[in-house]
Write a structure and sequence with these properties.
Blueprint: H1 4-37, H2 57-60, H3 67-96, H4 105-119, E1 128-129, E2 137-142, E3 145-151, H5 164-177, H6 192-204, E4 209-213, H7 216-230, E5 235-239, H8 244-253, E6 257-260, H9 265-273, E7 281-286, H10 298-307, E8 310-315, H11 330-333, E9 342-346, E10 356-360, H12 362-371, H13 373-376, H14 383-396, H15 399-421, E11 434-437, H16 441-455, E12 457-458, E13 461-462, E14 473-476, H17 484-500
Helix pairs in contact: 1-3, 5-14, 6-14, 7-8, 9-10, 15-17, 16-17
Length: about 500
Amino acid sequence: MLSKSSNSSKIVAVSKVLANYHHRRFSLAKKNLFRTALNSDYENTIPLICTDTIDCPFFKNSENVKLYDILNLRTEYNLVGKEKNLKTTENFYLNKHKNSVLFDYESYFSQKIEDKKRDGSYRYFKKVIRHADSFPNVQEQAENKVKDITIWCSNDYLGLGRHPYVLSQVTDAVMKYGAGSGGTRNISGSTPLHYKLEEQLAKLHQKESALLFTSCYVANDTTLYTLSRMLPNCHILSDSGNHASMIQGIRNSGIPKTIFRHNDYDHLEALLKKLPLDSPKIVAFESVHSMDGSICDLHRMCDITHKYGGITFIDEVHAVGLYGENGAGIGERDNALEKMDIITGTLGKALGNIGGYIAGSSNFVDLIRSYGSGFIFTTSLPPSVLAGTLASIDISRSDEGRALRFKHQLYSQIVKAKLIEAGLPVMNTPSHIVPVMVGNVKAAAEICDRLLNDHQIYIQAINYPTVARGEERLRIVPNPCHSMEMIDKLVFALTDAWLKSGLSLKKNF
Protein backbone atom coordinates (compact mmCIF):
# COMPACT_ATOMS: atom_id res chain seq x y z
CA MET A 1 0.00 0.00 0.00
CA LEU A 2 1.38 3.43 -0.94
CA SER A 3 2.18 5.91 1.82
CA LYS A 4 0.58 9.33 1.94
CA SER A 5 3.84 11.02 0.93
CA SER A 6 4.31 8.55 -1.92
CA ASN A 7 0.76 9.30 -3.11
CA SER A 8 1.42 13.04 -3.02
CA SER A 9 4.63 12.64 -4.99
CA LYS A 10 2.83 10.65 -7.68
CA ILE A 11 0.05 13.24 -7.93
CA VAL A 12 2.62 16.04 -8.32
CA ALA A 13 4.52 14.01 -10.92
CA VAL A 14 1.38 13.28 -12.92
CA SER A 15 0.30 16.90 -12.63
CA LYS A 16 3.65 18.06 -14.01
CA VAL A 17 3.39 15.69 -16.94
CA LEU A 18 -0.14 16.86 -17.75
CA ALA A 19 0.71 20.51 -17.29
CA ASN A 20 3.80 20.23 -19.50
CA TYR A 21 1.72 18.41 -22.10
CA HIS A 22 -0.85 21.20 -22.11
CA HIS A 23 1.89 23.84 -22.23
CA ARG A 24 3.46 22.23 -25.29
CA ARG A 25 0.05 21.58 -26.80
CA PHE A 26 -1.09 25.21 -26.52
CA SER A 27 2.28 26.56 -27.64
CA LEU A 28 1.92 24.51 -30.79
CA ALA A 29 -1.66 25.64 -31.13
CA LYS A 30 -0.67 29.27 -30.78
CA LYS A 31 1.93 28.99 -33.53
CA ASN A 32 -0.27 27.13 -35.98
CA LEU A 33 -3.73 28.35 -35.03
CA PHE A 34 -4.17 31.14 -37.59
CA ARG A 35 -2.45 29.09 -40.29
CA THR A 36 -4.65 26.02 -39.82
CA ALA A 37 -7.95 27.64 -38.76
CA LEU A 38 -9.21 28.23 -42.29
CA ASN A 39 -7.89 24.97 -43.73
CA SER A 40 -8.93 22.38 -41.11
CA ASP A 41 -12.30 20.91 -40.30
CA TYR A 42 -13.69 22.32 -37.09
CA GLU A 43 -14.09 18.80 -35.75
CA ASN A 44 -10.30 18.23 -36.04
CA THR A 45 -9.21 21.22 -33.94
CA ILE A 46 -7.56 20.57 -30.57
CA PRO A 47 -10.26 19.75 -28.01
CA LEU A 48 -10.49 21.40 -24.61
CA ILE A 49 -10.72 18.97 -21.71
CA CYS A 50 -11.41 19.15 -18.00
CA THR A 51 -7.87 20.26 -17.09
CA ASP A 52 -8.47 23.54 -18.87
CA THR A 53 -10.16 25.03 -15.81
CA ILE A 54 -8.55 26.85 -12.91
CA ASP A 55 -10.35 24.54 -10.46
CA CYS A 56 -8.85 21.32 -11.85
CA PRO A 57 -6.95 19.42 -9.05
CA PHE A 58 -4.08 18.64 -11.44
CA PHE A 59 -3.50 22.37 -12.03
CA LYS A 60 -3.66 23.04 -8.30
CA ASN A 61 -0.95 20.43 -7.61
CA SER A 62 1.33 21.47 -10.48
CA GLU A 63 4.59 23.35 -10.00
CA ASN A 64 5.98 26.23 -12.08
CA VAL A 65 2.98 26.24 -14.41
CA LYS A 66 1.72 29.64 -15.58
CA LEU A 67 -1.96 28.83 -15.16
CA TYR A 68 -3.35 32.17 -16.28
CA ASP A 69 -1.14 32.23 -19.37
CA ILE A 70 -2.56 28.87 -20.39
CA LEU A 71 -6.12 29.99 -19.66
CA ASN A 72 -5.64 33.21 -21.63
CA LEU A 73 -4.25 31.19 -24.53
CA ARG A 74 -7.30 28.92 -24.32
CA THR A 75 -9.59 31.96 -24.49
CA GLU A 76 -7.73 33.29 -27.54
CA TYR A 77 -7.98 29.88 -29.15
CA ASN A 78 -11.71 29.62 -28.42
CA LEU A 79 -12.47 33.01 -29.96
CA VAL A 80 -10.67 32.15 -33.19
CA GLY A 81 -12.28 28.72 -33.17
CA LYS A 82 -15.74 30.26 -32.86
CA GLU A 83 -15.06 32.60 -35.78
CA LYS A 84 -13.90 29.66 -37.87
CA ASN A 85 -16.91 27.61 -36.79
CA LEU A 86 -19.29 30.35 -37.89
CA LYS A 87 -17.50 30.69 -41.21
CA THR A 88 -17.48 26.92 -41.70
CA THR A 89 -21.18 26.71 -40.90
CA GLU A 90 -21.95 29.58 -43.29
CA ASN A 91 -19.94 27.96 -46.10
CA PHE A 92 -21.64 24.63 -45.47
CA TYR A 93 -25.09 26.22 -45.64
CA LEU A 94 -24.29 28.15 -48.82
CA ASN A 95 -22.79 25.08 -50.50
CA LYS A 96 -25.70 22.90 -49.48
CA HIS A 97 -28.31 25.41 -50.65
CA LYS A 98 -26.48 26.98 -53.59
CA ASN A 99 -29.11 25.59 -55.94
CA SER A 100 -32.11 26.47 -53.75
CA VAL A 101 -33.75 29.54 -52.24
CA LEU A 102 -34.79 30.49 -48.73
CA PHE A 103 -38.23 29.42 -47.54
CA ASP A 104 -40.86 31.83 -48.86
CA TYR A 105 -43.23 32.32 -45.94
CA GLU A 106 -45.58 34.75 -47.67
CA SER A 107 -46.05 32.45 -50.66
CA TYR A 108 -46.83 29.58 -48.31
CA PHE A 109 -49.39 31.66 -46.42
CA SER A 110 -50.98 32.78 -49.68
CA GLN A 111 -51.16 29.22 -50.96
CA LYS A 112 -52.96 27.96 -47.85
CA ILE A 113 -55.53 30.75 -48.16
CA GLU A 114 -56.03 29.95 -51.85
CA ASP A 115 -56.67 26.33 -50.90
CA LYS A 116 -59.57 27.41 -48.70
CA LYS A 117 -60.94 29.72 -51.37
CA ARG A 118 -60.85 26.91 -53.93
CA ASP A 119 -62.72 24.44 -51.73
CA GLY A 120 -65.27 27.10 -50.74
CA SER A 121 -64.52 27.08 -47.02
CA TYR A 122 -62.83 30.50 -46.90
CA ARG A 123 -64.66 32.78 -44.49
CA TYR A 124 -65.66 36.28 -45.48
CA PHE A 125 -66.66 38.41 -42.50
CA LYS A 126 -69.65 40.66 -42.97
CA LYS A 127 -69.31 44.17 -41.59
CA VAL A 128 -72.42 44.37 -39.45
CA ILE A 129 -73.45 47.56 -37.65
CA ARG A 130 -75.64 46.78 -34.67
CA HIS A 131 -77.91 49.49 -33.32
CA ALA A 132 -79.12 49.12 -29.76
CA ASP A 133 -82.51 50.65 -30.54
CA SER A 134 -83.38 48.52 -33.57
CA PHE A 135 -82.01 44.98 -33.05
CA PRO A 136 -82.46 42.53 -34.84
CA ASN A 137 -82.65 45.10 -37.63
CA VAL A 138 -79.02 45.91 -38.31
CA GLN A 139 -76.95 47.35 -41.15
CA GLU A 140 -74.34 45.89 -43.43
CA GLN A 141 -71.44 48.03 -44.58
CA ALA A 142 -69.96 46.98 -47.93
CA GLU A 143 -67.88 49.04 -50.37
CA ASN A 144 -68.63 52.25 -48.47
CA LYS A 145 -72.34 51.60 -48.74
CA VAL A 146 -74.68 50.84 -45.87
CA LYS A 147 -77.92 48.90 -46.24
CA ASP A 148 -80.56 47.77 -43.80
CA ILE A 149 -80.77 44.03 -43.12
CA THR A 150 -82.31 41.65 -40.58
CA ILE A 151 -80.03 39.31 -38.70
CA TRP A 152 -81.09 35.68 -38.06
CA CYS A 153 -77.86 34.18 -36.74
CA SER A 154 -76.95 36.22 -33.67
CA ASN A 155 -76.04 34.41 -30.46
CA ASP A 156 -77.33 37.36 -28.47
CA TYR A 157 -80.22 34.98 -27.97
CA LEU A 158 -82.53 37.22 -25.93
CA GLY A 159 -81.33 40.60 -27.14
CA LEU A 160 -79.96 41.49 -23.70
CA GLY A 161 -76.90 43.03 -25.32
CA ARG A 162 -79.06 46.06 -26.11
CA HIS A 163 -81.41 45.99 -23.11
CA PRO A 164 -81.75 49.49 -21.58
CA TYR A 165 -81.02 48.28 -18.03
CA VAL A 166 -77.89 46.44 -19.15
CA LEU A 167 -76.69 49.47 -21.12
CA SER A 168 -77.23 51.78 -18.16
CA GLN A 169 -75.19 49.56 -15.85
CA VAL A 170 -72.40 49.28 -18.42
CA THR A 171 -72.15 53.03 -18.99
CA ASP A 172 -72.34 53.78 -15.26
CA ALA A 173 -69.47 51.33 -14.62
CA VAL A 174 -67.32 52.94 -17.33
CA MET A 175 -67.84 56.41 -15.88
CA LYS A 176 -67.23 55.23 -12.33
CA TYR A 177 -64.36 52.73 -12.76
CA GLY A 178 -62.88 53.44 -16.19
CA ALA A 179 -62.54 51.26 -19.28
CA GLY A 180 -60.10 48.49 -18.32
CA SER A 181 -59.44 46.28 -15.31
CA GLY A 182 -55.78 47.23 -14.93
CA GLY A 183 -54.19 43.80 -15.03
CA THR A 184 -54.50 40.17 -14.08
CA ARG A 185 -56.51 39.16 -11.04
CA ASN A 186 -53.23 38.76 -9.15
CA ILE A 187 -51.94 42.20 -10.15
CA SER A 188 -54.51 44.94 -9.52
CA GLY A 189 -57.19 43.36 -11.72
CA SER A 190 -59.47 41.89 -9.04
CA THR A 191 -62.34 44.18 -8.05
CA PRO A 192 -65.42 43.84 -5.84
CA LEU A 193 -67.44 43.41 -9.06
CA HIS A 194 -65.43 40.28 -9.94
CA TYR A 195 -66.25 38.69 -6.59
CA LYS A 196 -69.88 39.75 -6.78
CA LEU A 197 -70.38 38.27 -10.24
CA GLU A 198 -68.62 35.01 -9.28
CA GLU A 199 -70.87 34.78 -6.22
CA GLN A 200 -73.98 35.30 -8.34
CA LEU A 201 -72.91 32.74 -10.95
CA ALA A 202 -72.24 30.15 -8.24
CA LYS A 203 -75.65 30.88 -6.74
CA LEU A 204 -77.31 30.61 -10.17
CA HIS A 205 -75.92 27.10 -10.67
CA GLN A 206 -76.31 26.10 -7.00
CA LYS A 207 -72.57 25.54 -6.60
CA GLU A 208 -70.12 26.54 -3.89
CA SER A 209 -67.91 28.68 -6.08
CA ALA A 210 -67.31 30.11 -9.56
CA LEU A 211 -64.38 31.62 -11.44
CA LEU A 212 -64.40 34.14 -14.30
CA PHE A 213 -62.38 33.86 -17.52
CA THR A 214 -62.02 36.16 -20.52
CA SER A 215 -64.04 33.69 -22.64
CA CYS A 216 -65.56 30.26 -22.29
CA TYR A 217 -63.06 29.01 -24.86
CA VAL A 218 -60.31 29.92 -22.41
CA ALA A 219 -62.33 28.49 -19.50
CA ASN A 220 -62.78 25.11 -21.22
CA ASP A 221 -59.25 24.90 -22.57
CA THR A 222 -57.59 25.93 -19.30
CA THR A 223 -59.77 23.84 -17.00
CA LEU A 224 -59.61 20.58 -18.95
CA TYR A 225 -55.87 20.94 -19.47
CA THR A 226 -55.09 21.83 -15.86
CA LEU A 227 -57.42 19.35 -14.18
CA SER A 228 -56.51 16.35 -16.31
CA ARG A 229 -52.78 17.03 -15.95
CA MET A 230 -53.05 17.21 -12.18
CA LEU A 231 -55.20 14.14 -11.55
CA PRO A 232 -52.98 11.04 -11.27
CA ASN A 233 -53.44 8.51 -14.10
CA CYS A 234 -56.41 10.48 -15.43
CA HIS A 235 -58.43 9.37 -18.46
CA ILE A 236 -60.77 11.68 -20.41
CA LEU A 237 -63.92 10.55 -22.21
CA SER A 238 -65.06 13.18 -24.68
CA ASP A 239 -68.29 13.45 -26.66
CA SER A 240 -67.60 13.35 -30.40
CA GLY A 241 -69.57 16.57 -30.88
CA ASN A 242 -67.66 18.64 -28.34
CA HIS A 243 -66.71 22.24 -29.04
CA ALA A 244 -63.23 23.09 -30.31
CA SER A 245 -62.31 24.68 -26.96
CA MET A 246 -62.85 21.38 -25.14
CA ILE A 247 -60.99 19.44 -27.81
CA GLN A 248 -58.08 21.87 -27.57
CA GLY A 249 -57.77 21.51 -23.81
CA ILE A 250 -57.93 17.72 -24.01
CA ARG A 251 -55.43 17.52 -26.86
CA ASN A 252 -52.97 19.88 -25.20
CA SER A 253 -53.05 17.92 -21.96
CA GLY A 254 -51.58 14.83 -23.62
CA ILE A 255 -53.69 12.71 -21.24
CA PRO A 256 -55.15 9.40 -22.50
CA LYS A 257 -58.56 10.03 -24.02
CA THR A 258 -61.42 8.11 -25.56
CA ILE A 259 -64.13 9.54 -27.83
CA PHE A 260 -67.70 8.33 -27.40
CA ARG A 261 -70.43 8.79 -29.97
CA HIS A 262 -72.51 11.95 -29.58
CA ASN A 263 -75.01 11.55 -26.73
CA ASP A 264 -74.63 7.74 -26.93
CA TYR A 265 -75.05 6.63 -23.33
CA ASP A 266 -74.55 2.92 -24.02
CA HIS A 267 -71.29 3.62 -25.81
CA LEU A 268 -70.09 5.80 -22.93
CA GLU A 269 -70.88 3.10 -20.39
CA ALA A 270 -69.15 0.41 -22.45
CA LEU A 271 -66.00 2.54 -22.55
CA LEU A 272 -66.12 3.33 -18.83
CA LYS A 273 -66.38 -0.37 -17.99
CA LYS A 274 -62.96 -0.94 -19.54
CA LEU A 275 -61.22 1.56 -17.25
CA PRO A 276 -60.06 0.88 -13.67
CA LEU A 277 -62.81 1.83 -11.23
CA ASP A 278 -60.43 3.61 -8.88
CA SER A 279 -58.68 5.77 -11.51
CA PRO A 280 -59.72 9.43 -12.08
CA LYS A 281 -61.96 9.92 -15.11
CA ILE A 282 -63.41 13.09 -16.65
CA VAL A 283 -66.48 12.80 -18.89
CA ALA A 284 -66.79 15.99 -20.98
CA PHE A 285 -69.88 16.94 -23.00
CA GLU A 286 -72.31 19.75 -23.87
CA SER A 287 -75.87 20.03 -22.58
CA VAL A 288 -77.11 21.77 -25.75
CA HIS A 289 -75.09 21.08 -28.86
CA SER A 290 -74.33 24.32 -30.65
CA MET A 291 -74.60 23.04 -34.22
CA ASP A 292 -77.26 20.31 -34.30
CA GLY A 293 -79.38 21.63 -31.43
CA SER A 294 -79.57 18.30 -29.61
CA ILE A 295 -80.01 18.19 -25.83
CA CYS A 296 -78.44 15.43 -23.77
CA ASP A 297 -80.13 13.45 -20.98
CA LEU A 298 -78.24 15.01 -18.10
CA HIS A 299 -79.49 12.58 -15.46
CA ARG A 300 -78.46 9.55 -17.47
CA MET A 301 -75.09 11.00 -18.48
CA CYS A 302 -74.23 11.97 -14.90
CA ASP A 303 -75.48 8.69 -13.39
CA ILE A 304 -73.37 6.59 -15.76
CA THR A 305 -70.31 8.73 -15.12
CA HIS A 306 -70.62 8.54 -11.33
CA LYS A 307 -71.34 4.81 -11.42
CA TYR A 308 -67.83 4.21 -12.73
CA GLY A 309 -66.06 6.73 -10.53
CA GLY A 310 -65.86 9.67 -12.94
CA ILE A 311 -66.70 13.36 -12.71
CA THR A 312 -68.73 15.33 -15.23
CA PHE A 313 -67.49 18.39 -17.13
CA ILE A 314 -70.58 19.99 -18.69
CA ASP A 315 -70.60 22.88 -21.14
CA GLU A 316 -73.85 24.86 -20.71
CA VAL A 317 -72.81 27.68 -23.06
CA HIS A 318 -75.88 27.43 -25.29
CA ALA A 319 -78.25 26.86 -22.38
CA VAL A 320 -77.36 29.54 -19.80
CA GLY A 321 -80.01 32.23 -19.81
CA LEU A 322 -82.33 30.17 -22.02
CA TYR A 323 -83.57 27.26 -19.89
CA GLY A 324 -84.74 26.84 -16.31
CA GLU A 325 -86.75 29.00 -13.96
CA ASN A 326 -83.87 31.43 -13.45
CA GLY A 327 -82.00 30.79 -16.68
CA ALA A 328 -79.34 28.51 -15.17
CA GLY A 329 -79.60 26.13 -18.14
CA ILE A 330 -80.63 22.53 -18.80
CA GLY A 331 -79.32 21.50 -15.38
CA GLU A 332 -81.88 23.73 -13.69
CA ARG A 333 -84.67 22.84 -16.13
CA ASP A 334 -84.16 19.11 -15.56
CA ASN A 335 -83.43 19.36 -11.81
CA ALA A 336 -79.97 17.87 -12.35
CA LEU A 337 -77.75 20.60 -10.90
CA GLU A 338 -76.70 18.56 -7.89
CA LYS A 339 -75.39 15.81 -10.17
CA MET A 340 -73.28 18.19 -12.28
CA ASP A 341 -69.72 18.31 -10.95
CA ILE A 342 -68.23 21.02 -13.18
CA ILE A 343 -70.26 23.53 -15.19
CA THR A 344 -68.88 25.95 -17.75
CA GLY A 345 -70.81 28.81 -19.22
CA THR A 346 -70.55 32.05 -21.15
CA LEU A 347 -71.42 35.67 -20.53
CA GLY A 348 -71.35 36.35 -24.26
CA LYS A 349 -74.48 34.72 -25.65
CA ALA A 350 -77.84 34.82 -23.85
CA LEU A 351 -76.39 37.17 -21.20
CA GLY A 352 -75.38 39.62 -23.94
CA ASN A 353 -71.85 40.52 -22.80
CA ILE A 354 -68.48 38.73 -23.12
CA GLY A 355 -66.48 36.28 -21.00
CA GLY A 356 -66.75 32.79 -19.57
CA TYR A 357 -66.71 30.97 -16.26
CA ILE A 358 -66.59 27.68 -14.41
CA ALA A 359 -68.67 26.65 -11.40
CA GLY A 360 -68.20 23.77 -8.98
CA SER A 361 -66.94 22.94 -5.52
CA SER A 362 -64.80 25.47 -3.64
CA ASN A 363 -61.76 23.18 -3.68
CA PHE A 364 -62.04 22.54 -7.40
CA VAL A 365 -62.43 26.23 -8.29
CA ASP A 366 -59.54 27.20 -6.03
CA LEU A 367 -57.40 24.53 -7.70
CA ILE A 368 -57.98 26.05 -11.15
CA ARG A 369 -57.54 29.55 -9.77
CA SER A 370 -54.17 28.53 -8.34
CA TYR A 371 -52.81 26.39 -11.18
CA GLY A 372 -54.61 27.35 -14.41
CA SER A 373 -52.27 29.48 -16.53
CA GLY A 374 -55.12 30.62 -18.79
CA PHE A 375 -56.61 32.30 -15.73
CA ILE A 376 -53.46 33.40 -13.92
CA PHE A 377 -51.70 35.16 -16.80
CA THR A 378 -54.64 36.90 -18.50
CA THR A 379 -55.87 40.45 -17.94
CA SER A 380 -59.21 40.23 -16.15
CA LEU A 381 -62.60 41.29 -17.48
CA PRO A 382 -63.26 45.05 -17.29
CA PRO A 383 -65.78 46.54 -14.83
CA SER A 384 -68.23 47.43 -17.61
CA VAL A 385 -68.60 43.78 -18.62
CA LEU A 386 -69.03 42.68 -15.02
CA ALA A 387 -71.71 45.28 -14.34
CA GLY A 388 -73.50 44.47 -17.59
CA THR A 389 -73.53 40.75 -16.83
CA LEU A 390 -74.83 41.31 -13.31
CA ALA A 391 -77.68 43.30 -14.86
CA SER A 392 -78.39 40.48 -17.34
CA ILE A 393 -78.54 37.92 -14.52
CA ASP A 394 -81.01 40.17 -12.68
CA ILE A 395 -83.20 40.20 -15.79
CA SER A 396 -82.80 36.44 -16.31
CA ARG A 397 -84.12 35.73 -12.79
CA SER A 398 -87.09 38.07 -13.20
CA ASP A 399 -90.53 37.64 -14.74
CA GLU A 400 -89.25 39.59 -17.75
CA GLY A 401 -86.51 37.01 -18.23
CA ARG A 402 -88.99 34.16 -18.06
CA ALA A 403 -91.23 35.92 -20.60
CA LEU A 404 -88.28 36.40 -22.95
CA ARG A 405 -87.38 32.68 -22.68
CA PHE A 406 -90.97 31.65 -23.39
CA LYS A 407 -91.16 33.85 -26.49
CA HIS A 408 -87.73 32.68 -27.63
CA GLN A 409 -88.77 29.02 -27.47
CA LEU A 410 -92.12 29.75 -29.11
CA TYR A 411 -90.55 31.53 -32.08
CA SER A 412 -88.01 28.73 -32.50
CA GLN A 413 -90.81 26.16 -32.72
CA ILE A 414 -92.79 28.31 -35.17
CA VAL A 415 -89.79 28.84 -37.46
CA LYS A 416 -89.01 25.10 -37.51
CA ALA A 417 -92.59 24.17 -38.25
CA LYS A 418 -92.94 26.71 -41.09
CA LEU A 419 -89.61 25.77 -42.72
CA ILE A 420 -90.41 22.06 -42.54
CA GLU A 421 -93.84 22.73 -44.03
CA ALA A 422 -92.13 24.59 -46.90
CA GLY A 423 -90.07 21.50 -47.65
CA LEU A 424 -86.71 22.65 -46.35
CA PRO A 425 -84.42 20.02 -44.73
CA VAL A 426 -84.61 21.23 -41.13
CA MET A 427 -83.30 19.13 -38.26
CA ASN A 428 -86.30 19.13 -35.92
CA THR A 429 -84.32 19.46 -32.71
CA PRO A 430 -85.61 19.95 -29.14
CA SER A 431 -83.65 23.17 -28.59
CA HIS A 432 -83.88 26.74 -29.84
CA ILE A 433 -81.31 26.15 -32.63
CA VAL A 434 -82.71 25.66 -36.17
CA PRO A 435 -80.20 23.85 -38.43
CA VAL A 436 -81.06 23.74 -42.14
CA MET A 437 -78.90 21.07 -43.77
CA VAL A 438 -77.32 21.93 -47.12
CA GLY A 439 -74.44 19.45 -47.43
CA ASN A 440 -72.46 21.48 -49.94
CA VAL A 441 -70.13 24.32 -49.04
CA LYS A 442 -70.59 26.33 -52.25
CA ALA A 443 -74.36 25.95 -52.25
CA ALA A 444 -74.55 27.08 -48.63
CA ALA A 445 -72.53 30.20 -49.44
CA GLU A 446 -74.67 30.94 -52.51
CA ILE A 447 -77.89 30.67 -50.51
CA CYS A 448 -76.57 33.11 -47.93
CA ASP A 449 -75.48 35.55 -50.61
CA ARG A 450 -78.93 35.42 -52.24
CA LEU A 451 -80.64 35.96 -48.89
CA LEU A 452 -78.51 39.02 -48.24
CA ASN A 453 -78.54 40.54 -51.71
CA ASP A 454 -82.13 39.75 -52.71
CA HIS A 455 -83.97 39.77 -49.39
CA GLN A 456 -81.79 41.75 -46.94
CA ILE A 457 -81.60 38.78 -44.58
CA TYR A 458 -78.30 37.85 -42.96
CA ILE A 459 -77.62 34.20 -42.10
CA GLN A 460 -74.07 32.88 -41.96
CA ALA A 461 -73.28 29.54 -43.60
CA ILE A 462 -71.60 27.02 -41.28
CA ASN A 463 -68.82 24.95 -42.83
CA TYR A 464 -65.61 23.09 -42.01
CA PRO A 465 -63.98 23.06 -39.48
CA THR A 466 -67.03 24.06 -37.40
CA VAL A 467 -68.88 21.09 -38.90
CA ALA A 468 -67.61 18.11 -40.88
CA ARG A 469 -67.26 18.39 -44.66
CA GLY A 470 -70.53 17.38 -46.29
CA GLU A 471 -72.52 18.60 -43.28
CA GLU A 472 -72.58 22.27 -44.23
CA ARG A 473 -75.68 24.05 -43.00
CA LEU A 474 -77.45 27.27 -42.21
CA ARG A 475 -77.79 27.87 -38.48
CA ILE A 476 -80.88 29.96 -37.86
CA VAL A 477 -81.47 31.48 -34.44
CA PRO A 478 -84.89 33.05 -33.80
CA ASN A 479 -84.95 35.83 -31.26
CA PRO A 480 -87.79 37.22 -29.13
CA CYS A 481 -87.04 40.56 -30.78
CA HIS A 482 -88.12 39.15 -34.15
CA SER A 483 -91.76 39.42 -35.22
CA MET A 484 -94.23 37.11 -36.96
CA GLU A 485 -93.93 39.29 -40.06
CA MET A 486 -90.16 38.76 -40.02
CA ILE A 487 -90.66 35.00 -39.66
CA ASP A 488 -92.96 34.85 -42.70
CA LYS A 489 -90.46 36.89 -44.73
CA LEU A 490 -87.66 34.52 -43.68
CA VAL A 491 -89.58 31.44 -44.85
CA PHE A 492 -90.40 33.00 -48.22
CA ALA A 493 -86.86 34.31 -48.75
CA LEU A 494 -85.11 31.06 -47.81
CA THR A 495 -87.38 29.03 -50.06
CA ASP A 496 -86.69 31.40 -52.95
CA ALA A 497 -82.91 31.41 -52.41
CA TRP A 498 -82.90 27.62 -52.01
CA LEU A 499 -84.60 26.97 -55.35
CA LYS A 500 -82.56 29.61 -57.22
CA SER A 501 -79.39 27.94 -55.94
CA GLY A 502 -80.40 24.75 -57.75
CA LEU A 503 -81.53 22.77 -54.72
CA SER A 504 -84.81 20.91 -54.43
CA LEU A 505 -87.31 21.02 -51.61
CA LYS A 506 -87.95 17.93 -49.53
CA LYS A 507 -91.00 16.85 -47.68
CA ASN A 508 -91.12 15.06 -44.33
CA PHE A 509 -87.38 15.46 -43.66
